[in-house]
Every structure is written in C-alpha cells, then in structure tokens.
C-alpha cells in the first residue's frame, strides 16, 4: 500500500450516533438479527408444539368450565406421577393457552419482523447500486445504505488510473463476475476523470429472502389466532349407542349401531351434519375438522324392548354400549324393572377380545349365569316377567375430536413462502462498487465498497504487489 491515502473500514454505511440509548438500540437490533436467535426460538416453539402432540391436552369443553378443568388437570397430574406437578406448572397440559407458548410466539414474531424489515431494506440494494453507479462524478465515496456489513477501502495505488482500473476490473471479475465500467469527467478539471466499476452477483436472492420471515409471520399469526379464537371438543371415548352434545359449540355426536348394517358416527356441527363410518378417519363438517380414532375395546348389549340402563341413568334403553380401557376393567348394566344386573369384565385374551359376562338376579350374591364371550352371541335372561333375549356384540369405542381452527388454511400459503425464502439462501449476494480517481503524482486513488471480504483483501494485496 502506498501514499498517504490508505484507509479500510468495516461497518454500516450510516454513522452510529453517539448516545448510549442509540448504541443500545443498535446492539439490540444486531442481536435480534442474529440467525441463532431465530433458530433457537423456532426450535423451542416447535418443541412445544411437539409436546402438545405427545402429552394429553385439556379438552376444549373442560377449559370453559373451571371446575371441570381443575378436575381434569388434577387427574392428569396424578397420572404422570412425580413429573405431573412440573408438567402442569409449565403449562404442558394446556399448551395453546400457556404463557410460555404465547411468549414464544410474540418473541419469534418480533425477531421475524426485524429480519423482514432488514431484508426488505436490502432488497433495494441492486437499485441503489445502479443509482450510485450512474450518479454524477464528484462524490467519493458514493452513498450506500445496507443493513448488512458494508466494507469500505480507500487507498492510493502506485499505478496511474487507467492501469489501476484495468487491474481492478480483473480482480472484481474473478471474485464476483461480470463488471460494468464507466469513465466520468471530473467537474473540477477537464483533464481529470473518474473510472467507476460495478460488479453484482446473486442479487436474485435479495428479492426472495424477505419471503422467509414473511411466511413465518403468517404462520405465527395463524397459531396465535387459532389459540385465541379456535376451540376443540374431545369427549370421553364413545361407546356404541352413545351420544354426546357440546351446546357451547353446537356440536352433537351419535355413535349409532343399527341391528343390520355397519356402525356409523353421526356428526352435527352448527347447521351441517354428516354420517361417517365408525372407524379411524378425518373429515370437515360445518367448518370444523372431525378426527375419529378407534379407541379401547367395547361391548354392545341389545334387547328388543327398552329394559337396559347404566347405573344412574334416568331411563331405560334398548341398547347400551360399554368401553373397557384396559384388561380387567369392569362394567355393570342394570335391568331396573326386574332387578336383574349384568356384570361384564374384560379378559386378557391372546387373540381377539374376550369378556366374562355374569347375570345376577335381584339380591343375588352368586351369578345365575356365567359366560365367557369371544364373539357375538345371544343370552337368554330368565326374568320374572319372562325370558328375554340379550344380544352381546364385541366392537370398539371411538375417540372423536372436533376442532375449529379459524384461518388454518393460511398455513398452506405460509409454507411455500418460507420454502421460497429458504431456497433463496443458495444465492449468496455479492457486490463491489469501485471508484478510481487521479492521485499525485502519477498514482490513483481507489475507493472500494463491497460486502466481499476476500475481495477487499485481494485489492489491498494487489496494491502492495504493484508497489
């Protein structure tokens, strides 16, 4: 490097104000723009969403009833043993309404907003470079604004301007790509001129990169909106012939098992209804998503006239369904008019479902009938009013979730936006704007502005070699 003109700077194109508050704001801006911050927050949020898929979440109908919510949370806490208290304190049983979930969404939205603002500013860089390249002579260095690091180099080259410009042209072309060059007459002397060189590569990525934080902001907005205004109804496992109603959301479910034909799940949401097969699947009804999964084994008991009732039920029915969540589970069905009871116990069979069915007469201690059931069959109940045929049929319970997530379709728009933004990372933007002016005696003053550190070093080393 030769001559009195020798300076290299790395930083932003705008000077930093001296106030402490401004410097603190600048440090905060740089912290929020660091990719690691967004990655960590996104990983925490995704982890929390994964936890919500693994750990049981409080049913929507219980959230609206404080007493029911407390009972559900206490039961779930006890079921998880020593970890239950910690999981409840962290809000992992109600992720959608937990302070941690909302804080992560707000924090990540702030970070994405900062990235979006910076990338939108950077997307104007190609136009700024061309405007500076075509600006009149007389300003050095040419004004550039970029939210990314801007490297500036000023030095005196030992060769005259034409030779220096030629060497610089080759250096820029090797480091970045095609170079545009202009020769401008200097306003202070007709004999002096300025050589201006511009090289750009990967600028397409600058136009697409804002799509990544934009898509992320859209996805975060959908998550927040669904948590704030969405709802879900998840009743206990439905047994055959069971019905369930959630008046607050106008949801009705009916697990129908006709005497002939296949079992069905009748779903009504708002003013729309649908009849679904009684098996695992998913569909849309009334603007809500209905997910059905086969649950624990179940047993259907049926008679010709309404004689059956569950303990505490207000009226008799012709059909009663029982769900058995585990081996050894026990259920009771009553025939109130005759004082007869049917006790059913789930057995641990190696193949298929097996049940022990015992029939007890009024005030009887020992069963009057005992049958091990492995397939559908009929029993004859000796009642005081006469024999009654009881049909027993092994089947399965249903877990049903009705979920309304307003705006969820926007996630299908957010996903391609984020993918396009991620794809743009393959284009690494690089630019260099150089000015070559006369410098006494027989030398050239070089002003280089670039984001390419290796290029800056190459220009400095070329000056040393030429000297």
- Count of DSSP helices? 12
* DSSP strand count: 20
Uncertain regions spanning at least 5 consecutive residues: 11-17
Please state roughly what percent of the residues sit in beta strands, choosing from under 5%, 5-15%, 15-25%, 25-35%, 35-45% or over 45%: 25-35%
Instruction: Please compute the radius of gyration using only Cα atoms.
Output: 38 Å
Mean pLDDT: 88
Provide the spatial order of strands within the biggest beta sheet: 1-2-20-19-4-3
Structural class: alpha+beta
The helical percent reads 25-40%
Largest sheet: 6 strands, antiparallel
Describe what this molecule looks like in 3D.
The chain is an alpha+beta fold. Helices cover 34% and strands 33% of the residues. The protein contains twelve helices and 20 strands. The protein has helices at 20-33, 35-54, 60-63, 66-79, 84-89, 99-122, 125-133, 161-175, 203-208, 211-229, 411-423, 453-466, and strands at 2-11, 150-157, 179-185, 193-201, 231-233, 243-246, 251-256, 264-269, 272-277, 281-285, 288-302, 319-323, 330-335, 340-347, 354-360, 369-373, 377-383, 386-404, 430-439, 443-450. Strands 1-2-20-19-4-3 form a six-stranded antiparallel sheet, sandwiched between helices. Strands 5, 10, 11, 12, 17 and 18 form a six-stranded antiparallel sheet that branches. A hairpin with a 4-residue loop joins strand 13 (330-335) and strand 14. Helix 6 packs antiparallel against helix 10 (211-229), helix 8 packs antiparallel against helix 12 and helix 10 (211-229) packs antiparallel against helix 11 (411-423). The longest helix is centred in the first third of the chain and has 24 residues, at 99-122. The chain is rod-shaped, with a radius of gyration of 38 Å. The N and C termini lie close together (7 Å).
């Amino acid at each position: 490097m030769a001559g009195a003109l020798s300076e290299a700077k790395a930083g932003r194109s705008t000077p930093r104000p001296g106030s402490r508050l401004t410097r603190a704001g600048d440090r905060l801006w740089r912290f929020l723009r660091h990719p690691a911050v967004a990655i960590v927050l996104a990983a925490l949020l995704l982890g929390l969403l994964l936890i919500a898929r693994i750990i049981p979440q409080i049913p929507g109908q219980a959230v609206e009833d404080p007493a029911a919510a407390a009972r559900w949370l206490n039961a779930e806490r006890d079921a998880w043993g020593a970890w239950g208290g910690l999981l409840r304190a962290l809000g992992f049983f109600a992720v959608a309404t937990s302070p941690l979930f909302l804080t992560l969404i707000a924090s990540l939205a702030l970070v994405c907003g900062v990235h979006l603002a910076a990338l939108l500013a950077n997307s104007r860089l190609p136009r700024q470079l061309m405007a500076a390249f075509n600006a009149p002579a007389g300003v050095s260095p040419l004004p550039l604004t970029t939210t990314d690091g801007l490297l500036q180099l000023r030095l005196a080259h030992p060769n005259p301007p034409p030779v220096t410009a030629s060497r610089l042209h080759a250096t820029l072309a090797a480091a970045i790509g095609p170079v545009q060059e202009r020769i401008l007459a200097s306003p202070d002397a007709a004999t002096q001129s300025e050589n201006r060189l511009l090289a750009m590569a990967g600028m397409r990525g600058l136009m697409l990169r804002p799509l990544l934080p934009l898509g992320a902001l859209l996805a975060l907005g959908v998550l927040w909106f669904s948590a704030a205004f969405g709802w879900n109804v998840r009743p206990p496992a439905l047994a055959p012939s069971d019905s369930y109603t959630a008046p607050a959301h106008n949801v009705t479910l009916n697990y129908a098992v006709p005497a002939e034909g296949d079992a069905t799940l009748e779903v009504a949401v708002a003013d729309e209804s649908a009849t679904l097969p009684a098996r695992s699947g998913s569909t849309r009804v009334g603007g809500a998503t209905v997910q059905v999964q086969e649950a624990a084994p179940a047993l259907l008991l049926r008679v010709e006239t309404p004689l059956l009732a569950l303990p505490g039920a207000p009226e008799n029915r012709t059909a009663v369904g029982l769900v058995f969540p585990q081996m050894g589970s026990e259920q009771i069905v009553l025939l109130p008019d005759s004082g007869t009871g049917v006790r059913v116990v789930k057995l641990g069979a190696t193949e298929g479902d097996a049940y022990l069915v015992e029939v007890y007469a009024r005030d009887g201690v020992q069963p009057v009938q005992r049958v091990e059931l492995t397939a559908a069959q009929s029993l004859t109940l000796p009642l005081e009013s006469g024999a009654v045929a009881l049909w027993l049929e092994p089947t399965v319970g249903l877990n049903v979730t009705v979920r309304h997530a307003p705006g969820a379709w926007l996630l299908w728009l957010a996903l391609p936006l984020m993918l396009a933004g991620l794809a743009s990372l393959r284009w690494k933007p690089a630019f260099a704007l150089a000015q070559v002016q006369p410098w006494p005696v027989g030398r050239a003053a070089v002003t280089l502005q670039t984001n390419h550190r290796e290029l800056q070093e190459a220009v400095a080393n070329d000056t040393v070699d030429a000297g």
